[in-house]
Every structure is written in structure tokens, then in C-alpha cells.
Amino acid sequence: MYNKPIIKAVGSRREFFDENDPIITEFMDCIRDLLEIPEVKELDKFHQHCNTSRLQHCLSVSYYSYRFAKKIGANPREAARAGLLHDLFLYDWRTEKTPQLHAFWHPKAALENAKRITELTNAEERAILEHMWPLYWGMPSTKESLAVTMADKYAASIEVICQWSLVFLRKLHIVRS
Ligand SMILES: [Fe+2]
Ligand SMILES: [Fe+2]
To answer: Which domains are delineated in the chain?
Structure first.
């Protein structure tokens, strides 16, 4: 279980619980109900990329999906909700055997899990299923799907870059372990 509090999206300065920030308040209103669901909370038990928990990753993707959606004229609420649920699978992808390669399998698993905990719009379903583009399940077919796909790559890249930068700085004794 991760004990690090999740304060903000990786790479962002805006804090999720800053009630004086109108962008954050509007974003949090889109996903607040989902954050109370046990299966979503449980994402904090799993590693995603490097030392990022899956819940931190999903919150980052949700936030950036919301921001990208506003920029490209997609529905920001649907993008934020699909972003939060896009990796809703409760297994360790490094060790668990799945019927197909994890990269191909997990969007479908996440969609089935998401359907079990909440009602999804068609755009949310497409966005969860298509978020691994260009690997599998077809190109983004809606603007919300495009927002989530871009946000997933963006958040994952920052997570990996931050982690490797830290390793590098530690090796040079610029920061302590
Ligand atoms: Fe994924
Ligand atoms: Fe992801």
C-alpha cells in the first residue's frame, strides 16, 4: 500500500484540494463520486510506472484528460471520468498472467470493471477501451477518447522521466536517497 498522499497530477502545480482554484474545483466535481468507490481507492495498492501508484497515475490522467478535453472541444466531464477509470484493473501487471498480453488485455478488463461500479456514457466506454492506441482496440473514435489517449501518454512519460531523473541525480549525489 502506498502511503504517499496524492496531492496533484504528476508534473502539475495545481493541488487537487485547493478549493480556491476554480479549475481544480470544476475538475474535482467531475470525479468526486468515483473517488469514494472502494475499487477506485484500491488502485492505490498497485504500482503503475516506476514508483507511481496506479491511483496517482489514474488521477493524473484524469486531470490531463479534463484539461485536454477543454482545449479540443471534447466533453471535459466524460474525459475526466474515463481518465480516472482507464486503468481500473486490480492486479500487478508485471506478475499476473492475463489471457492476452497485458497491453492488449487491460483496456477491456478496465472497461468491464468500470461498468460494474458506475454507469458509463458511450464516449466514456470508447475512451477506456481505446486508450492504448496505437497498440490495440482501434484509433480514438471520439474527442474524449483522443483526450484520454493523449493524457495517458503524457502522464506516463512524465512519471518515467521524473523517476529516471531522480535516479540520475542520486547517482551524482545531487539529491539524497
Ligand atoms: Fe492503460
Ligand atoms: Fe494508463
So the answer is: 22-171 (1.10.3210.10)
